[in-house]
Amino acid sequence: MKKIIPLVILLMGFGSIIFFSSCNKTGTVQAPGSVTKQSFGTLPGAPEVNLYTLVNHSGITLKVTNYGCRITSLLLPDKNGKCADVVLGFDSLAGYLSNNPYFGAVVGRYGNRIAKGKFEIDGNQYTLAQNNGVNHLHGGLKGFDKVVWTAEDFTTANSVGLKLHYLSKDGEEGYPGNLNIEVTYTLTDDNQLIIAYKATSDKATPINLTQHSYFNLAGAGDIKAHELMIASSKYTVVDSTLIPTGELRDVKGTPYDFTTVKAIGKDLIATGGIPIGYDHNFMLNTKGLSDLAVRVVEPVSGRTMEVYTDQPGVQFYTSNFLDGTITGKYGRVYTQYSALCLETQHFPDSPNHPAFPTAILKPGETYLTTTIFKFSAK
Ligand code: BGC
Fold it and tell me: Which residues line ligand 1 (CB under 6 A)?
């Protein structure tokens, strides 16, 4: 007995090292259950830009930078323990500074579009940048994806995490109110990435924060064979500039029906649009965090991602605008359908649609919302 126990402990330790190193592409060995911080470059007049590496006890490595609150890398084992980086991004800060598809960022103050950059609250008119054709997109010219957040890492008995903070000043990008924001990433040992958002404002303001990671659960190729389920029976119909017309249309009999599992490529062409692909907000049937909102399975690796959220919608985007002009990590050229985004959110342009759930945060209220990405492989 005495001999068996140390042997078991040795084997357990050895096993976890093998599993861990199989999911570590950088060659640096970091202890499970730890967070490390390294410099990721500097920006004039801004706090230090760092890259945080979070390793849980179950073989997942997550990298986050406080520039734009961005997830830069997510190393996930497949069903055989083989590792792949399942998010698009860059190795260096320079990559993020010179390219603009919001890779891995938290976008805001208002994620997605506001028609013509205009809205009204309590009789006051506000004008924001028209940075996407005639519309306002993802917070404007310098949204939350392009600012440096302050960050503090933490560990608990069964998780590793990073808490980020940013004060968006009254009038920043045209939005009203000093908005104090906290975003917490928690990676648990049962492979959940919990993203908790909290904010308060001293003036009524629209707010719609979301996580803009581009996932490819194969770590290569395109996402057409990924199998998708979205618990949504209606989507918001959009005009040619991707602004909702106000119509909530039944997905039944349309390419937008993912109520039962379907390969993303199956009806992709039938979506039409310029460029062709999914870039739509789905109204979720779910009633809160305990209901499964989305499931994506990559059939070859078995990697699976489930999304749970308390938000009313999710933007499903198949990276239609990636056109081969960006080269990211591992020298990979990013083209259409290289990845998919699942941006849990309020409906686009909701400040101009009184019938949509409201996204206005008032003074004295606290904006609190959580989205969970849960990973497994079978
Ligand atoms: C939008 C796309 C946009 C993309 C930018 C998505 O959230 O829905 O239309 O091109 O973000 O990266």
Answer: 101-102, 112, 242, 279, 315, 317, 321, 343
| Residues linked to residue 152 through DSSP beta bridges, in sequence order | 163
String of DSSP letters for 297-316: E-TTT-EEEEEEESSSEEEE
Could you give the CA distance from residue 288 to residue 8 in angstroms, rounded to a whole number? 42
Ligand 1 centroid–CA 221 distance in Å is 20
Domains and CATH numbers, the chain: 8-377 (2.70.98.10)
Q: Whose CA is nearest to atom 12 of ligand 1?
A: 101
Interval 103-124: pLDDT, tens: 999 999 999 999 999 999 999 9
Which letter, b or e, does each residue of 284-319 get, where b requires 16 or more Cβ atoms within 10 Å of its Cβ? bebeeeeeebbbbbbeebebbbbbbbbbbbbbbbbb
Report DSSP letters for 170-227, one per residue. Answer: TTGGG--S-EEEEEEEEEETTSEEEEEEEEEESS-EE-B-EEE--B-TTSSS-STT-E
Residue 5 pLDDT exceeds 50: no
Is it the case that residue 26 has pLDDT exceeding 70? no
Neighbours of 109 (CB within 10 A): 27
Residue closest to 114 by CA, chosen among 126, 102, 99: 126
pTM attached to this predicted model: 0.93
**Catalytic entry in 226, 298, 343, 353:** 343
Q: Is 104 helix (H, G, I), strand (E, B) or coil?
A: coil
| 227 residue type, one letter | E
**Across residues 271-292, what is the average pLDDT?**
96
Residue 24 is predicted with a pLDDT of: 60
Q: Do residues 187 and 60 touch, judged by C-beta distance below 8 A? A: yes
Sequence-distant (≥ 6) Cβ neighbours of residue 92 within 8 angstroms: 40, 41
Q: What is the DSSP letter of 338?
A: S
